[in-house]
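re: that chain from earlier
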Amino acid sequence: MKSFPPADSATLVLIVDEASPLRETLERMLGEEGFRVHVAGDRHRAAELVREHAIDLVLMNMLMPHAEGIGTIIAVRSVRPDLRIIAMSSGNGDGADHFLPLAKSLGASALLRDPLDREKLIDAIRTQLGEGLRQMAS
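^ sequence. v structure.
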């Protein structure tokens, strides 16, 4: 298992997912890695949190039963066009092949098919946070 240095405790990640075991797992996992976490269950709350807080990265589930992942990307991008977004889908043929490329075309910075793989998830988050810092310095 890959070992990561602790996250900067000032780093704030927004998880967008309806109340689910996945959201609880992500929230716990990111907390254990040292990230501060906010959660939103729909695009309206996600956009509100992005307006109110200095969110560093959005981690969102594209395939939620009652929320629209594509609409959430659009809503968040309308508030903060520069915000890094990781779109996730653990779907097996239930739309993941269509939603993830569409998410990328709408501004998702990275795509993950298997968000429960801790190593891949933390690596993707740290990569995106590093790229965001490099873009701000340019």
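The longest strand covers residues 12-16.
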